[in-house]
Amino acid sequence: MAYQTENTPADPRHSSRLGLRQRFYVVEVLVGLALTSQHFFVNMWRHTLKVVFRSKSARGAVTIQYPDERRPYSPRLRSLHRLVRCMMCETVCPAHCIYIVATEHPNPEIEKVPERFDIDLGKCVFCGFCVEACPEDAIRMDTGILEFAAYDRASMVYTKDTLLALEPAGADGAPTSPVPIPPSRRPA
C-alpha cells in the first residue's frame, strides 16, 4: 500500500473533500436547535396547561424538589450496605474496599466472626458482587440510603457497628434508618 499524503482517503471510492455545508455543520446545528426547541415548547405548553388551566390530563416535564420531595426508587436499587455477617465478600470485591479482621468465636460450632469489618464507600463501585458472593445473605444493599457524602476520605469508611445499625428500606424504597452522619459533618 502506498504512503498516504495530506487528506487522501485510503479507499479511492470515498471522497475526502467536504462541501461547504458539511464543513460548517450548519444543517446539523439547525436540526439540533429545532429538536431542542420542540421539546422546550411542548413542555412549556404542557406546564402552562397544568398550572394555569388546572388540566389534570396534561403531563409535562417532571421536576422533583429533591431534599423535600423524594422520587420513588425501584426495590432493586443498590444503596448503602447493611451487614449481618459474612466472610466471603472481601475476596470477591473488585474495588478492594472491604476490610475484614477475623477472630475465633467462643462457641466452637461457629468458625470465625469479624472482629473488624469496614467498607470504604469512597472506593466502593456498588457492583453488588459482595451481596451475590455471600451464601448466608449476610451483606445487603437494601437500606435505600443514597446520601452519604463526607468532607474527608476517613469519614467514608463505615465500620461494623455503623453497618449493623442500618435497617432495610420500606416498601416504597424510602430509608427506615437514619442517614449515618460522619463525625466531620456533625455540627459542633
Description:
The protein is an alpha+beta fold and 188 residues long. The chain has 2 domains: 63 residues, no CATH class; 97 residues, Alpha-Beta Plaits, CATH 3.30.70.3270. It is built from 5 helices and 5 strands. The longest helix is centred in the N-terminal third of the chain and has 26 residues. The mean pLDDT is 77.
How many distinct beta strands? 5
Side-by-side strand order of the widest sheet:
2-3-5
Approximately how much beta-strand content do the residues carry?
Answer: 5-15%
The CATH topology of the largest domain corresponds to Alpha-Beta Plaits
Largest sheet geometry: 3 strands, antiparallel
**CATH class category label of the largest domain:** Alpha Beta
Rounded average pLDDT: 77
Radius of gyration: 27 Å
CATH second-level architecture of the largest domain: 2-Layer Sandwich
Unreliable stretches covering 5 or more consecutive residues: none
Compute the separation of the termini in Å: 73 Å
Give the helix/strand class: alpha+beta
Oligomer type: single chain
Tell the overall outline: elongated
Number of domains: 2
The helix tally amounts to 5
| Pattern of helices and strands | HHEHEEHEEH
Helix content: 10-25%
Compact overview of the structure:
The chain has 188 residues and is of the alpha+beta class. The chain has helices at residues 20-24, 26-51, 89-92, 129-133, 160-164, and strands spanning 82-83, 98-104, 112-120, 139-140, 157-158.
